Amino acid sequence: MNLKRKINRHLERDRRALQAIDTGSAIAAMKEGLAAHQRGDIASAMAHYRAAISHHPEFAQAYNALGVALYDNGAVKEALEAHRRAALLKNDYADAFFHCGSILLELRDFPAAARMLQQAINIHPANVRAYDLLGQVLFRMYHIEQALAAYTAGLKLAPDDADMLHNISLVLMLLGRRTEAKEKLERAIASGPHKPESQCYLLTNKMYLCDWDNIENLSADLVRKVRDQKLPLDPFSFQGFPTAPDNAAQLACALGNAQIVSASLSAQEDVKQFSYHRESHTRIRIGYLSMDFRSHPMAYLMTEILQKHDRDKFEIYAYSYGPPDDSPERHRFMEVCDHFVDIQNLNDSGAASRINSDGIDVLIDRKGYTFGHRLGILARRPAPIQVNYLAFGGTMGVDFIDYAVVDEFVVPPDQQQYYTERLVYLPDTYQPNSFRPVSDVTPSRAACGLPENAFVFCCFNQTYKITPGAFDVWMRILARAPGSVLWLLKPDEATAGNLRREAAARGIDPARLAFAPKASQAEHLARHRNADLFLDTLVVNALTTASDALHMGVPVITCPGQTFVSRGAGSILRAFEMPELITADLQAYEDLAVAIAGDPARQHQLREKIARKRDTAPLFNSTRYTRHLDAAYHEMWRLHQAGEKPKPLSIRPVNHD
Questions:
Q1: Considering only CA atoms, which of 415, 412, 393 is closest in space to residue 404?
Q2: How far is CA 37 from the centre of its chain?
Q3: CA gap 284, 363 in Å, rounded
């Protein structure tokens, strides 16, 4: 956060206020301080502000100005204390409360920041920036509806404020109100300076809406800027751009974000060098860091792995910084870990100190650049070995993460050049799996809105993965497979309408699109029994959804690209020992889908093979997978103990039922 830009505007206001006051010693020193501050002479400004305070110990404006100068000089915590003193001396001093809230937001003390910013608004209800910062605080506390209210109130005062329009759009997207988010992002782009971040989220939001007007031109323009300028767009959104950013572009995006993380860290005064001690424990301590120890798809991938780590060799910690829930999944995580530590209310420095004091040897980042990440914790290096695992399909571009866990299909060895981490190759697949709970009740096709005798293609990926190119292929498949239908997850009505219009534009009756409404995980899995073939998306593959389909006996076909996220389904199929469903190009993908749809005997053979492989292939063998992961962690630790730098690792397969 550029606090200087946000609060230095108040200095001139203080200067003008002092013109009418008598020229006593305190006032004279304050004026000299303001003049020096405006010249950029921070040291002189601080000296004059302190002189003013020495002449008049209850001079609230001098404390407030001193706080600004201290912040400009990098003394963040001292700045906070100066602003707090100003607010204490003058309880109607809106600027002092605002400055306190600004710094507390930066320090991640969100409850205190919210109180300070609300008080600033109570005193000065026209403070637009206070509403903006309050919205940011509430968003980070996951008080989403309250954040929306704060931004809405601010926009009533400043309807064309580009920053607030951008920020409220992120809240609206999270709430699923994507049509409103699109309108706000378009206004943000029109109202403010050219903001690539707003363009990035507009593109992503259009992908969710399947609103493809001009989307490929916008995508190509942003990809070009990222490649040429290392523009720090949101890396997770960037991966899914419809023009398929290649590995070099994704690395450039990650490096741009890494520069922001590094600059943020260097600007903070609470960064300390940690030492690593292993005097009190013999087992290797593994720490998993995530906000998703709750009702989340991670639960279906990770719970058995955490449970099955070899407890003779490893001690397992979970560090949770997400909003706690009372779900069975969260309780299960708490049961299978040796230690479950809630760090939601700790700032990055406090969280890193806790992790280090627990003696973690290998810290696993389970968020990457996905929503809610806290890279500031890892940037402080609380553990001697830090690993990018499972959350983000690509490089982080930072120097404080040593390894990335992959397999040779998702990241072929010749792609190491696009990763700042050393690559650790697991033998089967990078993705863990376990069997999911499935409802015993299978709804009828009629209950699912499906024709009784039609061949049912399906794809249960989120709509942002459906690119115009993928949809082109799907519609050609429907045209070549008469009477077939395509079954998708039910989006909001605007998105469903866009998909129907896109189908009609490609000569396909929109009635051949069927939509599956939201259901529990167990019910959703059960209705897979009504599908015949899962069609993978292209730029970003099916991952958990591909495993779900195979688990339920539905064949999956894919066409791998060049990047991690476009090769995930191929990795899954390889681990399921069905490589014949991995196609070489889009024409082969289309032809295979049509051939399967027209050949009942082949459909039966695929179903029989899936039934066999479900019990014998490595994909769902969580014990085997965990032994491989254990071996990877053990080898990382062995190298560290030997004083060797991280290097690429290939883990040998084990035979373990």
A1: 393
A2: 39
A3: 11
Closest alpha carbon to 632 in 396, 404, 358: 404
| pLDDT tens digit sequence for 272-309 | 778 887 767 889 999 999 998 887 777 777 899 999 99
| Alpha carbon distance, N-terminus to C-terminus of the chain | 51
Structural domains of the chain, with CATH: 1-124 (1.25.40.10), 195-269 (no CATH), 284-426 (3.40.50.11380), 456-620 (3.40.50.2000)
pLDDT digit string, tens, across residues 53-89:
998 899 999 999 999 999 999 898 999 999 999 999 9
Which helix H or strand E contains 513, and what residues bound it?
Answer: strand 513-516
* Three-class secondary structure of residue 41 per DSSP: coil
Query: What does 181-218 look like in DSSP terms, one character per residue?
Result: HHHHHHHHHHHSS--HHHHHHHHHHHHHHT--TTHHHH
d(CA 104, CA 111): 9
Phi/psi for 511 (5° steps) reads: -65, -15
Query: Three-state SS across 541-589?
Result: CCCHHHHHHHHCCCCEEECCCCCHHHCHHHHHHHHCCCHHHECCCHHHH
CA dist 487 and 514 (Å) reads 5
Residue of 317, 321, 301 lying closest to 432 (CA atoms): 301
Read off the tokens for 553.
Answer: 């006996």
The rounded distance, in Å, linking the Cα atoms of 65 and 85 is 11
Q: What is the DSSP code (8-state) at residue 540?
A: S
- CA triple 647-653-657, angle to 5 deg: 145
Angle at 176 between CA 171 and CA 181, to 5 degrees: 55
The residue to which tokens 């939601």 are assigned? 344
